[in-house]
Amino acid sequence: MGTLGAGRTTTFWGRRVKSVYPKYFGYPPNFSRGKVDFWILTDEPFDHSRFARRYPEGFMGLKMQVSSLEDTILVKLRWAILSGGSEKQFTDALRVYEVQCEKLDIDYLERWAKKLDIELLWNRLKDEAGVA
After folding, report:
1. How far is CA 92 from the centre of its chain?
2. What DSSP state is assigned to residue 12?
3. Which element (helix H / strand E) includes 10?
4. pTM for the full model?
5. Is residue 26 pLDDT above 80, yes or no?
6. What residue spans define the domains of the chain?
7. Residue 119, φ and ψ in degrees, nearest 5
8. Which of 12, 74, 89, 127 could pair with 79 as two cysteines, CB 3.0-4.6 Å apart?
């Protein structure tokens, strides 16, 4: 499969899927009970960092590579901005932070929030988190 750009389609497991963001698509599309997001590796330093930090996880008898908790938070915050202020993406990131805060590498989050220019949203997340 080649690189997807926004609005492009490709075939995945015999179904046509459409990319909303460049280098990304969700499967199955328009599935009301959830979907799996797939990201294509780019040359961006953040992509290289998060791909290096992924880990294997079993799901329905398959072994898949999943993003770290920190990278999931950062990507959700980035999506929130790229999608024009999506509260859903922000809330997703907030909930991961609230549930997993004791396991998170805060230095990594701080460093990448600054590099990705999402510090304001990261600071809002920390302020709104219902954790001690």
Report:
1. 10
2. E
3. strand 9-12
4. 0.72
5. no
6. 9-66, 69-128
7. -60, -40
8. 89
Q: What's the half-sphere exposure (Cβ side, CA atoms, 13 Å) at 10?
A: 18
Neighbouring C-beta atoms of residue 113, cutoff 10 Å = 21
> Helix, strand, or coil here: 130?
coil
Is 77 within 8 Å of 122 (Cβ atoms)?
Answer: yes
Q: Which two tokens stand for residue 41?
A: 């590796």
For residue 104, the one-letter residue type is: L
Q: What is the pLDDT of residues 35-86, one digit of tens each?
A: 566 666 778 898 889 889 988 988 788 888 888 999 999 999 998 888 788 8
Distance between CA 14 and CA 3 in Å, rounded?
17
Q: What residues have CB less than 8 Å from 132, skipping those under 6 apart?
A: none
Rounded to whole angstroms, how far apart are CA atoms 25 and 6? 9
Q: Which of 72, 73, 82 is nearest to 6 (CA)?
A: 82
d(CA 94, CA 61): 29
